[in-house]
Amino acid sequence: MTKLLDKALEAARALPPDAQDDIARIILQLAGSDDEALVTLSPDEEAAITASSEAAARGEFATEAQVRAIWAKYGL
Predict the structure, then answer these.
(1) Residue 17 vs residues 3, 14, 20, 21, 37: alpha-carbon distances, Å
(2) Is the dihedral of CA 14, 18, 21, 23 positive or negative?
(3) CA-CA distance, 76 to 72, in Å (whole number)?
C-alpha cells in the first residue's frame, strides 16, 4: 500500500460510518471489484426518480422563473 493511500484510509477512519461506506464503495468501484450499486435508493427516492423521468418524457419541465426561484433560495 502506498503512503498516500494509507494516509487516506487513516483519515477515513475518523469519519462517521456512512461516510466510510461511501468511500469504500468508491474505492471498490475504482478497483473494479464492486458487487453492488454505488448508491442504494430508498423506495421513496426510486418513486421520485420514476415520476421525474415520466414528467420529462411528457415534456413537463420547470419554467425559467421556477428554476431562478430555486437558485435564489440557495444563493446561486
Answers:
(1) 23, 9, 5, 6, 18
(2) negative
(3) 6
Distance of CA 75 to the CA centre of its chain: 21
CA torsion through residues 5, 33, 40, 60, sign: positive
- Write out the DSSP string of 46-76: HHHHHHHHHHHHTT----HHHHHHHHHHTT-
> Angle CA(21)–CA(34)–CA(7) in degrees, nearest 5?
50
Model confidence, pTM: 0.45
Return the SS3 of 9.
helix
The predicted-structure confidence for 25-59, as pLDDT tens digits, reads as follows 889 888 888 666 667 889 999 999 999 999 999 99
